[in-house]
Every structure is written in C-alpha cells, then in structure tokens.
C-alpha cells in the first residue's frame, strides 16, 4: 500500500488537468476544486504510506538486530557448543548465580555475561572471551573446585566434525590450562646426568617412578659411570634392582646399554634419537625422555597416561604410540612438546586416573569431551586426588625447587616405612605403616 500512494496521487492530478478545462469555467472551477481535494487526499495518503514504509524499515532493522545472538552462538567452538543450548535458555538463571563461575562453570559463566550486558551478547559467547574464563578457572590454587562450582559443570559433548583448526585451538587451550595447574611439572625420575636418566627410564618399565627413585641411589652409588656398570657382577646388580620387578631382564638391559655406551659412544650418552634407540632396552619413549630432559631437545613421551588422556580429549583416535606421537605433535609447536608431555602425565597421575578420573575436581573439565567418565561429585572426586593435589608426597626423592615451593613433598627413601605410610595416608604420621594398595605411593606411576 505504501508504494501505491504516490503513484495514485500523480494519476489523479493529471486527470483533473485534462478533461474539465475544455468544458466550462464553472465546471472547470468545480473540476479544479475536486482536483484540489483529490490532490489533498492523495497527499495525505502519500504521507500515511511514507510513515508506514518508515515503520516497516524500523521493524526490519529491529529484526536484524536480534540475529547476532544466533550468529555468535554459531561461532562458538564445538566444546563451547556443548552446553550453549541449555546455557542460552538459562542465561537468566546463570546471571543470578551467587557463586563465581569456575572452570566447571565456564559455559554458564559465558552465558551469564550477556545477561548482565545484553548489548554484548556476541562478545559473551565469542571464543576470545571463553579463553580467559577457562584460564582463570584452572589456576593452581583452584585446581580443586568448590562443591557448588563443580556441581555446575556442564557435561561436555564429544566434538562432532571438529575442524583441525578447532582441534588445535582446543588442544592448546587444554595445555595452557594444565600449565597453570602444574607450573612445576617435571620428569618424575631422579637423575643427575644423562646416564642416570637413561638407566632410570629403562628401569621404570612396569613399575612406578617412585620405586625406581628409591632404588637408583644404591645403584649409582656403586656404579656411577657406564664403564662401572658394564663391568659389574650381574648378580649384584640384580639384587639392587630387585624392588623394581623384572630385575633380571632389567639388569641385562642396563648392563647392555652401559657396554654399548662404553664401546660405541666413548662412555657418553648420545644426543640423537637414531643413536639412542640402538641401545639395549631403549625405545622411542625412553629416547624422547632423555632427549627432552637431559639434552633439551623437544620430544613427546607417549606413555600409558599420555595415551589414555589424549584419547579422552579426542586429540587422536590412534592406538600405536608412534602414530599418537605424530598426531599430537602436529597440534603443537615443537618447542611445547617436552612440557606438554609433563603436563599430560602429571594430570594423568594426579586427577585423570585410568579407572577413576576425578572429573568433579578437574580444572579442565569444560574443555574435556570425556567429562563424566569419572566421579563428578566434587567431594568424592577430591578424595581421589593423588600426590600434591591430594596432599601426598610426590615420586621424586629430590624434586625440583619449584615443586617444593608449590607445596610438593619429597618422596621417602626405600624402606622408610613411616614416611611411606604418611604418603599413603596423607596424615604425616611416622607410625602409619606401609602404603595401602592403590595409594599414591603404590600407584601405577
Ligand atoms: S578428570 Fe574427567 S573431566 Fe578431567 S580430563 Fe579426565 S575425563 Fe576429562
């Protein structure tokens, strides 16, 4: 209707100006009067039409303004998408939450912001805004969320059709989160030089780093160099290594690699992967531990924890260590590889356990597609924490200063049952006895 008004007015004016003028003056005057009133009516119609058009444009503009909310949600990463549907519907509820949002609450927190700042709905759900929220929530001090906080964790859903770019972003966000939770992450084998590290790593197969750390002081005190160990009496070495299990096979390996170091490498541990993997008992995992921690050369350590966690996080579906190493390596710059390995292994040992992951106490829960695989009740989950997160001693008898500064407790030496008992109970009681099965001191590493 709005478009017809102006056209109709023009037509009416033209008709008034042609027919009546040829008839008579009165008729013409009458005709002019009629034409004038028609013109006035047409002008009125045009004005109304103009107003209607303006009103329509305004309505359209209003409609356009409401679109960005949907568009912004579309931009969110798959993990962030996990809860938004619920979160958007519950923005009002989130905004009225009394307790501050933590990692577990990342999704509701993101939704709570737009409720307070309705004009910036787009910002509230953008990826950039999500990062600081996650970062804040995973600080070391907040590693164990409060009950209310953990109870609000939105179960993350497995990312579907996640692009490589989105996967890289999510993987790096998890690593940054872990770096804040474990700023003191380090190799958990005690060593003073590359020779001690390669021997300790070989001995760590099928046992805990703690047990190795409790055993190697006697070994290195008696055989401090590759030449000494290569020339040792095997039975004496076996006796020292007995606590680590598989001690005969391990004796063969460490004496064999000592002979190879003595005969082929001048008594020095080589700093190249291709040389290290030629040593008896040394595979890629051991080689990367040595390269990364004794030579400062980037390496990814794919141990049992690493394999389990990267699969839970959907970083890769590969099952073979070498393929996992390649797949995960492609998500991070080389310079991150060594510390990434420590972060993941620390998390696997302390919170994301094989059988009972402590999801309710996990600071990276909002980024984890496997949230809910373990205990989600915050109080029960907190009881599952191991090592320093659970208030227990670590695995190293001589941990780095950063670990001690963060409240970490050194592991007790072999045979210190009182101290080991404290490790098991966390009570610090010297008369507590040997560690209970499944306790941190007896864990799977
Ligand atoms: S503890 Fe649970 S939420 Fe945390 S990384 Fe492991 S599976 Fe995911």
UniProtKB/TrEMBL annotation:
Keyword DNA repair: yes
Chain positions covered by the region annotation Disordered: 1-30, 57-166, 397-445
One of the GO biological process terms: base-excision repair, AP site formation
Enzyme class name: lyase
Compositionally biased intervals (Low complexity): 21-30, 64-140, 406-431
Annotated keywords: 4Fe-4S, DNA damage, DNA repair, DNA-binding, Glycosidase, Hydrolase, Iron, Iron-sulfur, Lyase, Metal-binding
GO terms for MF: 4 iron, 4 sulfur cluster binding; class I DNA-(apurinic or apyrimidinic site) endonuclease activity; DNA binding; DNA N-glycosylase activity; metal ion binding
Known cofactor(s): [4Fe-4S] cluster
One Pfam family it belongs to: HhH-GPD
EC number per UniProt: 4.2.99.18
HhH-GPD domain location: 203-350
Record's catalysed reaction(s): 2'-deoxyribonucleotide-(2'-deoxyribose 5'-phosphate)-2'-deoxyribonucleotide-DNA = a 3'-end 2'-deoxyribonucleotide-(2,3-dehydro-2,3-deoxyribose 5'-phosphate)-DNA + a 5'-end 5'-phospho-2'-deoxyribonucleoside-DNA + H(+)
Domain of life: Bacteria
Stored SUPFAM superfamilies: DNA-glycosylase (SSF48150)
Cofactor binding, per record: Binds 1 [4Fe-4S] cluster.
Amino-acid positions noted as binding [4Fe-4S] cluster in the UniProt annotation, renumbered to this chain: 352, 359, 362, 368
Alphabetical list of PANTHER family matching this protein: A/G-SPECIFIC ADENINE GLYCOSYLASE/ENDONUCLEASE III (PTHR10359), ENDONUCLEASE III (PTHR10359:SF18)
Stated family: Belongs to the Nth/MutY family.
NCBIfam families: nth
The protein's role, per its UniProt record: DNA repair enzyme that has both DNA N-glycosylase activity and AP-lyase activity. The DNA N-glycosylase activity releases various damaged pyrimidines from DNA by cleaving the N-glycosidic bond, leaving an AP (apurinic/apyrimidinic) site. The AP-lyase activity cleaves the phosphodiester bond 3' to the AP site by a beta-elimination, leaving a 3'-terminal unsaturated sugar and a product with a terminal 5'-phosphate.
Name this protein carries in UniProt: Endonuclease III
The species this protein was found in: Streptomyces aurantiacus
Lineage: Bacteria, Bacillati, Actinomycetota, Actinomycetes, Kitasatosporales
């Amino acid at each position: 209707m709005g478009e017809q008004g102006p056209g109709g007015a023009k037509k009416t004016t033209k008709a008034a100006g042609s027919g009546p003028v040829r008839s008579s003056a009165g008729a013409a005057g009458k005709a002019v009067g009629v034409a004038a009133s028609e013109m006035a009516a047409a002008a009125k119609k045009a004005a109304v039409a103009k107003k209607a058009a303006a009103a329509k444009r305004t309505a359209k503009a209003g409609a356009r303004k409401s679109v960005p909310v949907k568009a912004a949600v579309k931009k969110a990463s798959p993990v962030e998408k996990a809860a938004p549907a619920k979160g958007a519907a519950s923005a009002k509820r989130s905004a009225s939450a009394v307790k501050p949002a933590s990692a577990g609450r990342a999704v509701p927190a993101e939704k709570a912001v737009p409720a307070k700042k309705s004009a910036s709905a787009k910002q509230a759900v953008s990826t950039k805004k999500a990062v600081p929220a996650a970062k804040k929530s995973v600080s070391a001090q907040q590693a164990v969320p409060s009950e209310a906080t953990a109870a609000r964790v939105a179960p993350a859903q497995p990312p579907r059709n996640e692009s490589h770019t989105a996967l890289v972003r999510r993987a790096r966000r998890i690593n940054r989160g872990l770096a804040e939770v474990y700023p003191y992450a380090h190799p958990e084998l005690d060593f003073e030089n590359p020779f001690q590290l390669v021997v300790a790593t070989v001995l760590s197969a099928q046992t805990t780093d703690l047990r190795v750390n409790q055993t190697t002081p006697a070994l290195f005190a008696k055989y401090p160099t590759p030449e000494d160990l290569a020339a040792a009496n095997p039975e004496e070495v076996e006796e020292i290594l007995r606590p680590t299990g598989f001690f005969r096979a391990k004796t063969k390996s460490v004496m064999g690699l000592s002979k190879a170091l003595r005969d082929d490498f001048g008594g020095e541990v080589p700093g190249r992967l291709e040389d290290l993997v030629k040593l008896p008992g040394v595979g890629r995992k051991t080689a990367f531990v040595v390269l990364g921690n004794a030579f400062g050369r980037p390496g990814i350590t794919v141990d049992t924890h690493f394999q389990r966690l990267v699969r839970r996080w959907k970083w890769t579906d590969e099952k073979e260590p070498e393929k996992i190493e390649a797949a995960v390596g492609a998500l991070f710059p080389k310079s991150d590889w060594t510390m990434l390995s420590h972060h993941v292994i620390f998390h696997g040992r302390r919170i994301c356990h094989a059988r009972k992951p402590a999801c309710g106490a996990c600071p990276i829960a909002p980024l984890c597609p496997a949230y809910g695989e373990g205990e989600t009740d915050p109080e029960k989950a907190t009881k599952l924490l191991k090592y320093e997160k659970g208030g227990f001693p670590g695995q190293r008898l001589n941990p780095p200063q950063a670990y001690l500064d963060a409240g970490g407790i050194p592991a007790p030496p072999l045979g210190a049952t009182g101290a080991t008992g404290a490790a098991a109970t966390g009570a610090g009681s010297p008369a507590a006895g040997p560690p209970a099965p499944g306790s941190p001191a007896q864990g799977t590493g």
